[in-house]
Description:
With 437 residues, the chain is α/β, with parallel strands linked by helices. It has a single domain (4-372), classed as Aldolase class I (TIM Barrel), CATH 3.20.20. The chain is built from 14 helices and 16 strands. The chain has helices at residues 50-61, 93-103, 153-173, 187-192, 207-210, 212-225, 258-271, 293-300, 305-312, 328-337, 347-351, 355-360, 378-401, 412-423; strands at 7-8, 20-21, 27-28, 32-34, 66-68, 72-73, 85-86, 109-115, 130-131, 149-150, 177-182, 231-236, 275-279, 319-322, 342-345, 367-368. The strands form 4 sheets. An 8-stranded parallel β-barrel has the order 4-5-8-11-12-13-14-15, surrounded by 5 helices. Strands 1-16 form a two-stranded antiparallel sheet. Strand 12, helix 7 and strand 13 (275-279) form a beta-alpha-beta unit. Helix 1 (50-61) packs across helix 13 and helix 13 packs across helix 14 (412-423). The longest helix is centred in the last third of the chain and has 24 residues, at 378-401. It is globular. It comes from Bifidobacterium biavatii DSM 23969.
Amino acid sequence: MTNDTTMTTAxxxxxxxxPLTLPCGVTxxxxxxxxxxxxxxxxxxxxxxxxxxxxxxxxxxxxxxxxVTGNVMVDHTQLGEPGNVAVEDERDLVMLRRWAxxxxxxxxxxxxxxNHPGRQSPVTINPHPLAPxxxxxxxxxxxxxxxxxxxxxxxxxxxxxxxxxxARIAQKAGFTGVEIHAAHGYLxxxxxxxxxxxxxxxxxxxxxxxxxxLFDVFDAVREAVGPQFPIAxxxxxxxxxxxxxxxxxxxxxxxxxxxxxxxxxxxxxxRGVDLIDISGGTYAKPxxxxxxxxxxxxxxxxxxxxxxxxxxxxxSVPVTLTGGFRNAADMxxxxxxxxTQMIGIARPLALVPDLPNCIIRDGWQGSVDLPRVTTGIKPxxxxxxxxxxxxxxELQMHRIARGHRPNPHIGGMRAxxxxxxxxxxxxxxxxxxxxxx
Length: 437
């Protein structure tokens, strides 16, 4: 067990060791799905590094069935966060192979998450964002994002080609699958949401038209990698604001709704998707950026469970539910009820990289308690709450990548200073924009 200080005792057992066979015929060794977190380990050249290799080797040896990388952007001029990797061609193939080899040790699957930020790209790293529709972002965070240019049909076709090309390179490098990011307010989610997509051509208007970009991307990726290569899609349950309790149904007015999300999932199932990663939140900060720590985790529980129960009777394709899994009892309950086929975990693995082994191999039945991240200065916490949390967990991942143990006692101020040192002023820009009020 990597970090005893983060755990409390509980009693339960979970069937997480069972293998899962995906629709494409590939079998995953167990039900632990390490969800994507931005590692922020790339330099200005957007290339993968030895730090990626060391971090993913640690996670692979920790026992997860699937490791999903942080955002890998399909265009180096369109980044979503500081430290993103971008893969447009084969110039970094040698290091990509080292990264994939490390992430697939111990019989682990390592899937590359491929993405385009659209308008959700801070002006400090991209003064010329692209989006389904033009229009300046309003609200208190508007000045952090440049006004985007509406994509032309030719640009849309180019981005579709880029997704397919990045997936092809991932497969060539030895990654064993890809996840298409269609959630959290990035480009594909922007096409899906009528709050962002005001187009009047074949990519706007009706749900079928708004989903066309995602379907075109999926089909192009499938053609590039073939029928036996896993393709997952991360999709929002709805455009739900962060202020809404994540286990209650409450669609954002005029936004992408739960009914629309289920329809899109059914279409993806018919197209041959291998797994759907259920998530939520877009214009407000996503749920993973909250900094209430273990107290808030216990109050909230596992995210999006009510929506997952709705999906259960609608789909046969495997789903993974990410967010709020902290103990074996919740994992066991979700698997036994059939509301998820994989246990999505992100932040706990930045503190306990070998958590899957602790539960499967060692029979540990405890709970991971995440600390409340704070600088100790309320105005700073309020101003940089989401950035503070992201930076704190990035710092823990950097420690693992350097061969150090995670340290849950590091304070929020140190995390902010770390982010500024790593990324300069771009570190203080919101990673995701705040929504319209």
